[in-house]
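Hello,

Our lab assistant flagged a job as stuck in the queue for most of the afternoon. It eventually completed. Since we weren't sure the result was trustworthy after the delay, we are filing this so someone can double-check. Below is the sequence as submitted and the structure that was eventually returned. Let us know if re-running is recommended.
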Amino acid sequence: MPTEPAASVAFDPDTFERLHRSYLRVDRRDLDQAWHLLEALHVLGQARLVPHARTHGLMLGLAWRTRNLAEVNGQVLRLLLVPLGHLLGRLPLGNTGRSNVGAFRPMSVAPELLATIRAHQRTSTP
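-- returned structure --
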């Protein structure tokens, strides 16, 4: 399965907000879609401090709501690491932000995440 280099996903605040609104509208029982949208938000926003921290805060909230202790712990760690990563310029671009992948592991952007980001770039209300 081909993947897209992380550098090809440039931050765009309008796209970030459209993705965020889509996340807020997702059915609370559709956890796969909720996590998918949060991963897309993370890939898009991780190069900027505030959107990056905001995404991990949303991930922590979803992990807490679903009582996923491993994810809660992973998100607390990542929230603590976000400022340090930005200060040192050491961000693992393309990383999905979940606790099931290493916090320092750069990744290529999965095609389904890239498609979601691109779809939100092209529409005013996805």
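-- support follow-up --
The delay was a queue issue, not a problem with the job. The result is valid. The chain is about 60% helix and 0% strand. Helices lie at 13-25, 31-45, 49-65, 69-88, 111-122.
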